[in-house]
Amino acid sequence: MPQKRKAPTGIDAKLLIKDAAKLLPQPSRRLFLRGTLSVGSLAMLTGCDIVDGPTAENALRVISRFNDRVQALLFSESTLAPEYPESAITRPFPFNAYYSPDEAPDIDGESYRLEIGGLVDNKKAWTLAELGSMPRVSQITRLVCVEGWSAIGSWQGVRLSDFLKLIGADLRARYVWFQCAEGYSNTIDMPTALHPQTQLTLQFDRHTLPIAYGFPIKIRIPTKLGFKNPKYVTAMWVQNNDAGGYWENQGYNWFSGL
Amino acid sequence: MSIEAAPHSTDLRQPAAVAAVIHPRWVRVTHWINALAMFMMIGSGWQIYDASPLFDFLNFPPQLALGGWLAGALLWHFAAMWLLVVNGIVYVTLGFATGRFHRKLLPIKPRAVVRDFLAALRGRLSHDDLTVYNSVQRLLYAGVLLAGVVIVLSGLSIWKPVQFKYLTALFGGYDTARYVHFFAMAAIVAFLTIHVALAFIVPKSLRAIIFGR
User: For residue A55, what pLDDT is reported?
Assistant: First the structure.
């Protein structure tokens, strides 16, 4: 059984720190319009108080919600993310989080349980062994970070739509919400959860998921930006209310589709 | 004497300017909406660039960037894109439909471009008739239109590399499309530098794009 963790192989320590540092939240993040005031030129827009931070921020967030709807319309469950040959895999594959790699959650695979909740018939919690015995799918796809860089990785696991059907999830529900061990969370739309490439991931490059990449479970969604691919997942809820997410709540676009 | 001369002088002073509309209203309106959209797209684009720079030697100073941090810049970028694209479609449609592009930008002959470019360097290019573009202007205005098309399409291919995967492939894949998007921005910024500098060197051209004549 693959529960015993392995040290992440082939990860460049310098790259880890560099990538982790980039996403560290800045104290100024809630005031993201402050920087624009110094440009001064924005004043010419006015008449109204668009230079007033909260007003502009609200207007921008309204447009961001509009963009969510546009992206949901563009999304197609039959449009697949491009897949690549083994030779295209980015090595070392970057670690990325808002904390450094040594702060990543160290979860005991033996006692781990994936909690299930919400609009689901069977709310039984799942062990890694049980998840590992399910039919496995594999993909080599590009992870695109909201920062702009991308990397090609190889992920193996259970097709999420198969798992949702198996546990009797209400597939007409609007959202699936994921809770992670370190306090991170994500909500995704049901059409994306049912996309054939959306994966409950147990392995990276055919080895047990290393800590850096989300042991014991990552949700791999090649049709969404990297931050909508939660790692260290401990609970999954099927529900009709949008529970938001760690970055989404701070102003990143909710849908973040590719 | 001046009292007697006054009624005549208004008729006689600038007969050509009164007759010729250099920029019709639709050009002026779309021009300034585009200027606003460009300001927001470039400023927020520089902030987004800084989150994962393509070149080690290039970072944009935060004072020049829009959005304050990555999420803010992305909100600006994906809001202003609607303004840029909708306004751009109106402008390009009218540009073709009214024949303005054809009339103003063609023909572009290499020999004439070289001649006008050398004349410009010597400060001997005439700006007496602003309704006719010289060959260097034609080349630059046609070029920046092309850069505008490239920046929108490469931007779409970065935004939606799965849903628009064939467009992304056309640009050589996701990573290459980022470089195309960057260089299209660089071309537009280079154009704007010359464009704005010349507008101040030839102030009546600035007046024309505001008041039409």
Answer: 85
| Whether B51 and A41 lie within 8 Å, measured CB to CB | no
Give the model confidence (pLDDT) of A85-135 as tens digits: 999 999 999 988 888 888 889 999 999 999 999 999 999 999 999 999 999
Facing B74 at nearest CB: one of A36, A252, A258 = A252
Distance CA B119, CA B109 (A): 15
- What's the rounded Cα separation, in Å, for the pair B158 and B181? 8
Alpha helices in A133-196 (DSSP H): 160-166, 190-193
Q: What integer pLDDT is reported at residue A54 of this predicted model?
A: 79
Would you mind telling me the total number of residues written for chain B in this entry? 213
- B5 shares contact with chain A (CB less than 8 Å): no
Tally the domains of chain B.
1
CATH of A81-250, one of 3.90.79.10, 3.40.190.10, 3.90.420.10, 3.30.70.270: 3.90.420.10
Structure tokens at A145: 């970070």
- The secondary structure of chain B in percent helix, strand, coil, rounded to multiples of 5, reads 75, 0, 25
**pLDDT at A51 > cutoff 80:** no
Q: Where are the domains of chain A?
A: 26-74, 81-250
Residue B36, domain CATH: 1.20.950.20
Give the global pTM. Answer: 0.84
ipTM of the complex: 0.86
Quick one: which H or E segment has residue B84?
A: helix B70-97
* Partner B contacted by A55 (CB < 8 A): no
